[in-house]
Amino acid sequence: MRHQIRFQIRRWEESGRELVPLVDGVSLADLVSGFEHAAGYQPAGGYAGLVLDHFNFGDLGNYLHGEADSPYWRDAVALLGCNCGEVGCWPLEAQIRVDDESVTWSAFTQPHRPDRDYLDFGPFTFRRTQYDQAVREAVDS
Fold it and tell me: Superkingdom of this entry's organism (predicted)?
């Protein structure tokens, strides 16, 4: 199943901005929080988007295609960070696979809770052209 993606730029605290992925119009933070609650994980939720004022992992467009400029994000990237604003505090990580036709987010993990099983969360596959357009809009805003 192909999903729709949008990256919403929201105000973060007084003067910052956060990038929140919306899958089929629903915040990824809300989707994963619901999954974690249903699975009985504690703590559940506690996520926020990527706070752009703290983002230092290279080009944002490349990052959203799974190409982070950081040794920390090699096999996966954080699509969400902690609701404190620090991505590494409580990230939701995923592998991003890109081909000519699609972009897929899969293999979700919460690195601070390696015993959690996210196998039934996702994968989320997007049309490549629609994904690229959503990334361009996010980068340009």
Answer: Bacteria
